[in-house]
Amino acid sequence: MKHTLIASLTCAAMAVAGLSGCANMSETQQGTAQGAGIGAVAGALLGAATGGSRGAATGAVLGGAVGAGGGYIWSKRMQDQKIAMEQATAGTGVAVSQTQDNRLKLDIPSDVSFDVGRAAIKSNFAPVLSNFATSLNQNPITTITIVGHTDSTGSDAINNPLSMDRANSARDFLVGRGVAAQRVATDGRGAREPIADNGTQQGRDKNRRVEIYVAESAQRQ
What we know:
This protein has two domains: 2-69, no CATH class; 76-220, CATH 3.30.1330.60. 54% of the residues lie in helices and 13% in strands. The protein has seven helices and five strands; from the N terminus they run H-H-H-E-E-H-H-E-H-E-H-E. It has a five-stranded mixed sheet. Strand 3, helix 6 and strand 4 form a beta-alpha-beta unit. The chain starts with a helix and ends in a 6-residue tail after the last strand.
């Protein structure tokens, strides 16, 4: 059984590398291929656990099909939006990136977004959100998730609602610029997910942040 699992994982991993590494694939095709490969890994493991080597092979095929048809894609629209946001946020300290699961991410630090202990949009954050709203309205099939974070200063009773209030403030700003409210989900993580050392001022500044994710579902294609 152990050897079957290892062999299944190896085959599935090779499928991932082969599918997602073709230089002549478009970004959309690469995203679909990566989803297929990940699905194949999961399917192979499940199949091996339930039906031996034959189950592993069948599971890999079915898992690959599910992976290719679900999740998120990185389309030309998403790439264009990333480029537009990189240009719009140049020099502001906002980081724009593509996540491993093919979402567009804006990481907005505290010196851009909110004052300490406040949820009101800062004046230098407003232009960033305005440009972002324009790009969202140009690509209306995407969905948006806004996540607020705090540093560890203060109690959870303060930080948890504050992080949620910050996410909601960003959402309300976007909605006020024409983005449909049903496209936007918000969450507040308080101080639970630091990205730097809360023992230093510099670390706390990094941890007070807002993350915005944009996703285009493969199922819409």
